[in-house]
Fold this sequence. Notes:
Elements: E1 12-13, E2 24-25, H1 32-40, H2 45-51, H3 57-77
Antiparallel strand pairs: 1-2
Amino acid sequence: MPAQTNVPPPLLQHSAEILGGALVFGGTRVPFQTLIDYLKAGDTLNDFLDDFPSVTREQAFEVLELAQEAIVREIDASPVG
């Protein structure tokens, strides 16, 4: 029997079979947009995690860090003036 490996799901994924291709947290059916909506509404990360226990705190932090990095890259690439 081949050895089993514990390969974690990707941080984010999208597939036509899962919520019509919406970007979701890997291994879940929870859209990334839902986290953004919670935060925009003034809810806390803990509120989101309590309501969506299939998303780990680590996943949420990593996705927020990726979003932050993308924003900083976008700003850094913009001409100053």
